[in-house]
Amino acid sequence: MYILSSKQIAQADKATIKANEISSTHLMEHAATRCFDWLHTRLQGQNIKIHVFCGIGNNGGDGLVITRHLLQHGYDVDCYVVNFSDKRSEDFLFNYIRLKELGKWPRVIHNEDEFPEISYEDIVIDAIFGNGLTRKPSGFTKKLIQYINNTKVFTLAIDVPSGLFTDKPVTDKNSVLRAGHTLTFQTPKLAFFLPENQDFMNTWEVIDIGLDENFIESLESKKHYITKTDVIPMYQSRNKWSHKGTFGHSLIIGGSFGKIGAVTLATKAALKIGSGLVSAYLPKCGYNILQIAVPEAMVEVDEEKVLTYFNFKTKATVIGIGPGMGISEKTGLGFEQFLKENKLPLVIDADGINLLSANPGLIEYLPKKSILTPHPKELERLIGSWKNDYEKLEKVVEFSKKNKVIIVLKGTYTVTIDEEFMYFNSTGNAALATGGSGDVLTGIITGLIAQGYEPRNAAIFGVYLHGKTADLALQNTGYETFTASIILDYLAAAILDLFQQETTDEIDNDYVVEPEEPE
């Protein structure tokens, strides 16, 4: 699924109107009716007070249409026009008249003295500002947004929470509505995926309003939201004549005294995802631990407590390096020599990234399309600090383009960045915020590359499966008792889930997005 900018969405609107020979009013009616249908399906006529706040543009027009349908279905609803300008869009005026024809006159708000009383048990529908906002709300409109926020009432935002810019940073957090849930039109917006906007986005859902899919495809957006539909074609089925050599040989390098668990988890993950052979290279102190914990793996050892020589004999297909490795002087020197000599594909995590950050000159030795999997602090050490999340993404893109590497930036919406292309993941939840989950991800991606997956697809697919394990496990584990080892326990279920036919409810739930917080 593409992530489109405000400008691209406007272009898609116009293309749809032209291709289907319909009016913009017709498109608005369809989009807003889809929002009403969503709400009506859940409320089923319950006697709940609903307040609809409408701006004076097209987002406000959506609110007027929703109000009309609510009234026609017997709901207790009040509609308010936030009169922050004398200008009105044509579609707003058309639907304003239609609402008045029902005998329902929206109350016009000119100042804060006219704010309605809202109870905690009520529902607020936010249709003040939509996609395309370029200036922060001010005056009584800003005060209205603050008033709604302070009521703690459940707020349903239409398209985007009012005051949230979709393509640039928020400059005044006090002027943005804090939505309980957002129904966004056709595609997600980039702002939804950024940590700095977490106060404004609780959950969100994509509503298909029928924009021209062929035109959207023609836009060739470089930003993507990855769902099951996107990863199914990546899956590589197995030929019955294949053997263990067919699926490659993963080598996991890492571990130090007290941190053998990290390399053990990564080794297990490479095996569980299907690497034909897996070897581990670690300090001698971890030999017995790994041989007992992962009997299927082969083991080579270095010095007693830390990696020093990196003189393994394994003939690997791909190397995953960094989990639990430490950053001692001996390890740093050995790591430098290893990078200068290595020609194999690499997946670099944890202390491998930290050693690169300490010695940036080593980055030039990375094979093209090496994968780095930092969490935010590791990324900051690698590329420097940033003013906001938009600048962070720009800096990662520049780093990826300059060094020809792929970055998997772990977070609530883990994003895989391959030069100018971004792939935001849809799976996972806060259960993944536990030690070792990143080590498992390293092993999964390494094991996929061993089997012949292209590095970009291995990263995207690996991140998706990693997150899906937490989604599947949650009903049995809860958040608190979930551990990194449970990712391995549910990896088979995550793969099998790719081929299970979904019910309508399951499809709807797939687009209700809640946060993931991996290690």
Residue-averaged pLDDT: 95
Strand content: 15-25%
Major sheet details: 10 strands, mixed
Strand order of the largest sheet: 8-17-16-15-14-13-12-9-10-11
What's the number of extended β-strand segments? Answer: 17
Helix content: 25-40%
Description:
It is a single chain. The protein has 519 residues and is an alpha/beta fold. Helices cover 40% and strands 15% of the residues. It is built from 18 helices and 17 strands. It has helices spanning 6-20, 24-43, 58-72, 90-101, 139-151, 213-218, 228-231, 260-272, 287-293, 329-341, 351-358, 376-383, 389-403, 437-450, 455-477, 484-489, 491-497, 504-510, and strands at residues 50-54, 77-82, 107-109, 123-127, 154-158, 179-185, 201-207, 223-226, 249-253, 277-282, 298-301, 318-321, 346-348, 371-372, 406-409, 415-418, 421-425. It has a 10-stranded mixed β-sheet, sandwiched between helices. It has a 7-stranded parallel β-sheet with strand order 3-2-1-4-5-6-7, sandwiched between helices.
Task: List the topology elements.
Elements: H1 6-20, H2 24-43, E1 50-54, H3 58-72, E2 77-82, H4 90-101, E3 107-109, E4 123-127, H5 139-151, E5 154-158, E6 179-185, E7 201-207, H6 213-218, E8 223-226, H7 228-231, E9 249-253, H8 260-272, E10 277-282, H9 287-293, E11 298-301, E12 318-321, H10 329-341, E13 346-348, H11 351-358, E14 371-372, H12 376-383, H13 389-403, E15 406-409, E16 415-418, E17 421-425, H14 437-450, H15 455-477, H16 484-489, H17 491-497, H18 504-510
Parallel strand pairs: 1-2, 1-4, 2-3, 4-5, 5-6, 6-7, 8-17, 9-10, 9-12, 10-11, 12-13, 13-14, 14-15
Antiparallel strand pairs: 15-16, 16-17
Helix pairs in contact: 2-3, 3-4, 8-14, 11-12, 14-15, 15-17
